[in-house]
Write a structure and sequence with these properties.
Blueprint: H1 9-12, H2 14-25, E1 41-43, E2 54-56, E3 62-63, H3 78-90, H4 97-104, H5 108-122, E4 136-144, E5 160-167, E6 172-177, H6 182-192, E7 198-202, H7 208-211, E8 216-220, E9 228-229, E10 233-234, H8 236-253, H9 261-273, H10 279-289
Parallel strand pairs: 4-7, 7-8
Antiparallel strand pairs: 1-2, 2-3, 4-5, 5-6, 9-10
Helix pairs in contact: 2-3, 3-10, 4-5, 5-9, 5-10, 8-9
Length: 303
């Protein structure tokens, strides 16, 4: 992560933060989150109205830039939300809730929930096909968690299975599964990776049958220490992603519950998928992803 300029107005002033969020969410001007109107919008001014309040003349609803996002009805100042977003988006191996609460001056409980809201913003929506003609999709599975002792857990969490698909020079999409079988792996592959792709895996038998449904299927045999063959046959791309994921889960977060693993995976997927942009651009993409999402504490109990 590049050096954080804590003197930046968007981290110090709630109004500057609101104006920045408006520029990201509404690059062409305010849009009513209630009805989608973009023309008949009026800014409400005066002592009776807080800054940043708008009214839609079509549906007569009032709104601000946070309505319809994970920031809606939050009592946390928007500048603190932006700083939390920047820290989480710019930290390759994650940013713990304890560190977040110390840096932005909120309770640990608040920081924990803020981080989960931001992870929800990072999670990808409807999955589009990965791969395609003349493209390679690597698939592999791993197990995360289960090592660290954390007083938030009565017992150390068990290891959970994660299946990831990575398009070479493209995006990753990982998913928590109850177990790794031919059935669970096939469901992930055929719904998310184009069958026109060349599928690359290790020697695991769970990929053999589904591999026949693809343009081609290659594998390397890790059991005999074969990791690269001919420069093309390898699963190094997905293995590199797993190394980042495990360093974050084991080193930064230390213990992740089964209930919330999907959000942590969304966080690591997001940063990997926007790895080639700077921290500000990555943060802006996360803020855009906050649109249309809500997460309530009652539905996301702590660990």
């Amino acid at each position: 992560m590049s050096a954080v300029d804590l003197t930046n107005p968007v981290f110090q002033d709630a109004q500057a933060a609101r104006e920045y969020l408006e520029s990201v969410r509404w690059p062409n001007g305010p849009v009513c989150p209630h009805c989608g109107e973009a023309e008949e919008i009026a800014a409400l001014r005066g002592k009776a109205h807080r800054p940043g309040l708008y009214k839609c003349r079509s549906c007569r609803g009032q709104f601000s830039v946070t309505v319809g996002t994970v920031f809606e009805r939050s009592k946390i100042a928007l500048n603190k939300w932006l700083l939390a977003s920047y820290l989480l988006c710019g930290s390759k191996k994650g940013f713990s809730a304890h560190q977040l609460h110390r840096m932005i001056g909120v309770t640990y409980k608040t920081a924990w929930f803020m981080a989960h809201r931001l992870r929800e913003a990072m999670r990808e929506g409807k999955a589009a096909d990965m791969g395609g003609s003349n493209k390679v999709v690597e698939a592999d599975e791993t197990y995360v968690g289960g090592k660290a002792k954390n007083r938030a857990f009565k017992e150390p969490p068990k290891k959970e299975a994660v299946v990831a698909l990575v398009e070479r020079d493209g995006k990753v999409r990982s998913q928590h599964v109850p177990n790794v079988t031919s059935k669970t792996v096939r469901e992930i592959l055929v719904t998310q990776a184009s069958r026109d792709s060349f599928l690359m895996t290790d020697e695991s038998p769970v990929y053999r049958k589904v591999g026949r449904e693809y343009q081609g299927h290659g594998s390397v045999n890790h059991s005999i220490d074969e990791y690269v063959r001919g420069g093309f046959y390898h699963t190094n791309t997905v293995e590199n992603y797993f190394s980042i994921l495990k360093r974050g889960i084991n080193g930064t977060y230390q213990a992740v519950s089964k209930q919330h693993l999907k959000r942590y995976l969304g966080e690591f997927d997001f940063r990997y998928n926007f790895r080639n942009v700077d921290d500000w651009s990555r943060t802006a993409e996360a803020l855009k992803g906050a649109d249309g999402k809500r997460l309530f504490y009652s539905t996301a109990p702590a660990n």
